[in-house]
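Give me the fold.
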Amino acid sequence: MLRIILAVSWLLIITIAMLTPGEKLPEANYFDLQDKLIHLICFGGLSFLWTGVGFQRSEYGENRKRLIVNFIVFGILAGIVLESLQYFIPNRTFDIMDMIVNEIGGILGFLAYFKIPTAKFGLD
């Protein structure tokens, strides 16, 4: 249950941050590629949290398709959709490199889900 609460919260935070008009955002440019690092972390975390949503320990080995569906929807499609929607937001821009970094973050989050020992069921 904790995983779903964290996953939904993270999705809402990212959605609000990415779809807020540009003039409402503070200027914060501390180092080169800061924007890309933020995209990587945001979508890595999103994918990491959503990959395991909907699983109980007893059914983990039985239904691996759901892992893939969760990853595709929240690790891949969410990054594409949210970045594409920025085109329609005042003072925000669509950036293909941001979209690519979103996807890399999603893939890294998915892989981290399997590599971090407590990730699979530590948040359930």
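The chain has four helices and no strands.
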